[in-house]
Design goal:
There is one protein chain. Helix 10 packs antiparallel against helix 11. The chain has 19 helices and 6 strands. It has 3 domains: 15-106, Orthogonal Bundle (Fumarase C, Chain B, domain 1); 116-152 and 163-206 and 220-355, Up-down Bundle (Fumarase C, Chain A, domain 2); 360-457, Fumarase/aspartase (C-terminal domain) (Ribonucleotide Reductase Protein R1, domain 1, Orthogonal Bundle). The chain is elongated, with a radius of gyration of 31 Å. The strands form 3 sheets. Strands 1-2 form a two-stranded antiparallel ribbon. A two-stranded parallel sheet has the order 3-4. 38% of the residues are buried. The protein is mostly helical.
Length: 461
């Protein structure tokens, strides 16, 4: 089949170069968006009198038939000589309704067509990503509600630091994923402008109505500048960046799950359906799902860098390099969705080993700050209280004791301000439940976080 530019050229494109040039193998996933864009365009052409209304109706009906046939597998992309999904649809249309189909591309370029298709496609994918994140946050809030009083050590520098609850820790990730949803929503807002009607770069001499096509396709408005309309890929880069941050959060969470599964921590036990074994060591239960999520984050970061590198040196307006944007952003979306879909059941089915969490909290002197605060509340300057508590900890370490194991007489050797109520002050539950400042780990405050998060989720999608 002759290329659409055959009038200018005397030779067919070399077959190997045609394969190199083709994007149909990966942009075919945008067939529904390409058809919807074409339907809006041709309706506008008919209403503006650029083509007859009868031709407009006939083209729309045929496009609907093509979409239905692709959906049920009656039409296949493999083996087609079409360069891309845009030409594939147009050639199929022309094969079915002849010359009428050739009128579809009036007042349009593939440059504004592809810019439109990818915006339409990514809009849909953003909503799916948001839906997936909503699923993760829902699991986190449900888990947190069950573990409002499950004491565990909080860490800094991966060293036991202060007592918190498992619910408090999980809700920190919920906040991260809420911000990810906000970033996706912001990207959607900036993406939601219609490039159709920009033409190759300089608009059209036909009396087109860009507002009409924009409204039909549910955009906020047409893009303001026709050159920017076809050359802008900021939204791909921005979405890739937002996905990279999502994967950063999933990777951090995966790292903790991997640690928590280890015998050195043993805070959780993954369900057998979400762990794997070893080919040689029969005792092994490996957190491969979490490890793979952590690994895929690096792949997605690479896609983000690739998009930046593709665009950074391009002059305006359209350049063939921009064909490379799709594989990168499609791969990031596909893998992020796969990670999210795998993470949700892994989290919801894991077993929380509450006793191990509390035992770890007991052994780490994570109530030392509360001991110092006790002295401060009795009137001692904080730095003096800090020094005395450090000396108490050193004494406990030398005897393999905890602060709660020291006799009151030994406390008084360091300060007469100590009294029997010190044992209540350094009790782990007291340490956690009295941390009642906003955003803190007390059950009341974490429950507030859960309720606020659930309220926010009501407005997502």
């Amino acid at each position: 089949m002759a290329q659409m530019w055959a009038g200018r050229f005397k030779k067919q494109l070399d077959s190997k170069i045609n394969d190199f040039n083709s994007s149909l193998s990966f942009d075919c996933r945008m067939y529904a968006e390409d058809i919807e864009g074409s339907k809006a365009h041709v309706r506008m052409l008919g209403e503006c009198g650029i083509i007859s209304k009868d031709d407009s109706v006939k083209i729309v009906e045929c496009l609907n038939d093509i979409k239905a046939d692709i959906k049920i597998g009656k039409i296949e992309f493999s083996g087609s000589a079409a360069e891309d999904i845009h030409m594939f649809i147009e050639e199929e249309l022309t094969a079915r309704i002849g010359d009428t189909g050739k009128r579809l591309h009036t007042a349009r370029s593939r440059n504004d067509q592809v810019a439109l298709d990818i915006r339409l496609y990514l809009r849909k994918e953003i909503n799916e990503l948001k839906h997936g994140l909503k699923g993760i946050i829902t699991v986190l809030t449900n888990l947190s509600e069950r573990h409002l009083k499950t004491v565990m050590p909080g860490y800094t520098h991966l060293q036991r630091a202060q007592p918190i609850t498992f619910a408090h820790h999980l809700m920190a990730y919920a906040q991260m994923f809420l911000r990810d949803i906000e970033r996706l929503s912001d990207t959607y807002k900036r993406m939601n402008y219609c490039p159709l009607g920009s033409g190759a770069l300089a608009g059209s001499t036909f009396p087109i109505d860009r507002e009409k096509t924009s409204n039909l396709l549910k955009f906020n408005a047409p893009t303001a500048n026709s050159i920017d309309g076809v050359s802008d890929r900021d939204f791909c880069i921005e979405l890739s960046g937002a996905i990279s941050i999502i994967m950063t959060h999933l990777s951090r969470f995966s790292e903790e799950i991997i640690l928590w599964c280890s015998w050195e921590f043993k805070f959780i036990d993954l369900d057998d359906a979400y762990a794997t074994g070893s080919s040689i060591m029969p005792q092994k239960k490996n957190p491969d799902i979490a490890e793979l999520v952590r690994g895929k984050a690096a792949r997605i970061f690479g896609n983000n860098m690739a998009l930046l590198a593709i665009i950074k040196g391009l002059p305006l307006a359209y350049n063939k390099d921009m064909q490379e944007d799709k594989e990168a952003i499609f791969d990031s979306i596909d893998n992020a969705k796969l990670c999210i879909e795998s993470f949700i059941p892994m989290l919801s089915t894991m077993r929380v080993l509450e006793g191990n969490m509390r035992n770890a909290a007991v052994k780490g002197f994570i109530n030392a700050t509360d001991c110092a605060d006790y002295l401060v509340k009795k009137g001692m300057a904080f730095r003096d209280a800090y020094k005395i508590t450090g000396e108490l900890v050193a004494l406990c370490i030398s005897r393999d004791f905890g602060l709660e194991d020291l006799a009151i007489s030994e406390y008084k050797n360091f300060s007469e301000l100590f009294d029997d109520d010190i044992y209540h002050a350094v009790n782990l539950e007291t340490c956690v439940f009295k941390r009642n400042s906003q955003g803190g780990p007390s059950p009341e405050r974490v429950l507030e976080q859960i309720e606020q998060t659930r309220e926010i989720l009501k407005d997502v999608l």
